[in-house]
Amino acid sequence: MKSDLVYFKNLLEKNGHNFTVTRKKVLEAVLDSKTHLNVKELYEKVKEKDKSIGLATVYRALNIFNDLGIVKEINANGISYYEKKIFSGKPLHIHFKCFRCNSIIDVDSKSLNLEYLKLNKKLEEENNLEIYDSNIMFEGLCSKCKEELKNK
After folding, report:
1. Could you report how far apart the first and last alpha carbons of the chain are, in Å?
2. What range does the record give for the signal peptide (predicted)?
């Protein structure tokens, strides 16, 4: 077993879940993905490796992974997308969803991330809160779709 999977196996088992072959395959699909995927897209990726895995199995695995903080569920227009949360290398980032192609893009900007941190801190201080996570989603047209529309 790959060393990075050992951590997830231990985390699942510590929380009373078995690290089954199917959960391992779902987890690998999430970890290998460079984009945000919805359940059906993840199901298709997993099904390429194992035709016997059902859609309900993928849903159940993602629910467990979400509860344990392994993945983060991002809801955009009623559709849940998933990205790895643990060891993502991007603990704090903003999302952008394109209305036209439905892609979800991570916005990586040091200056925006700094403002994001300031906003979190201000919310905590002014409202006596302790923030553990947040979701900021901008929506509009991505650069690719803007260019395609411009060239029509």
Report:
1. 50
2. none
Strand partners, 106: 95
Strand 137-140 to 94-98 pairing: parallel
Domains and CATH numbers, the chain: 1-89 (1.10.10.10), 90-152 (3.30.1490.190)
Task: Tell me if residue 112 falls in helix, strand or coil.
Answer: helix
Separation between Cα atoms, residue 70 and residue 95, nearest integer Å = 18
- In this structure, the dihedral spanned by the alpha carbons of residues 116, 122, 124 and 128, taken in order and rounded to 10 degrees, is -170
